[in-house]
Design a protein that fits this description.
By secondary structure, the chain is α+β, with helices and mostly antiparallel strands. It is built from 2 helices and 6 strands, in the order E-E-E-H-E-H-E-E. Helices cover 22% and strands 29% of the residues. A 6-stranded mixed beta sheet has the order 1-2-3-6-4-5, with helices on one face.
C-alpha cells in the first residue's frame, strides 16, 4: 500500500490520509471545499463548493498518477438534495468523455458544515 499526499489539496484534518493506492487503485478520502493553503472553507454556494472539491480531487488524482478520466466510482454527500441539479452541472464538467459509477446521498451534516463532500476510487499507473 502506498500513501498519497500533496500540498495542492487540503491536509487531512483527522486520523486519515488523502488517499491510498492498493493494487493499481486509488482510494481517495472524501474531499470537502477547503483551500489547500489556508484550510478555510471556499464558497458559500453548492456551485462554488463543488468547484473547490473537484480542484482538491484533481490534485490528489494527479499526485497518484491518475485523472478524472480514470475515476471508476464516486460517492457524493450533499447537505441538501434540493441542490442536486446545481451540483450536477458543476460535477458533469469534470467528466467529459468518461462517466464513473456514482452514488449521491443527502446527509444531515458534513465536516465544517460544508454543503458537499466527494470521495473517489480511480485506477492509477504504478
Amino acid at each position: 500500500m502506498k500513501k498519497v499526499h500533496t500540498d495542492k489539496a487540503p491536509k487531512a484534518i483527522g486520523p486519515y490520509v488523502q488517499g491510498n493506492i492498493v493494487n493499481g487503485l486509488l482510494f481517495a478520502s472524501g474531499q470537502v471545499p477547503l483551500h489547500p493553503e489556508t484550510g478555510e472553507v471556499v464558497g458559500t454556494t453548492i456551485e462554488a463548493q463543488t468547484e473547490q472539491v473537484l480542484k482538491n480531487i484533481a490534485a490528489i488524482l494527479a499526485e497518484a498518477g491518475s485523472s478524472f478520466d480514470r475515476v471508476i466510482k464516486t460517492t457524493c454527500f450533499l447537505k441538501n438534495m434540493e441542490e442536486f441539479a446545481a451540483f450536477n452541472t458543476i460535477y458533469a464538467g469534470a467528466f467529459t468523455d468518461h462517466l464513473p459509477a456514482r452514488s449521491a446521498v443527502e446527509v444531515a451534516r458534513l465536516p465544517k458544515d460544508v454543503l458537499i463532500e466527494i470521495e473517489v476510487i480511480a485506477s492509477v499507473n504504478e
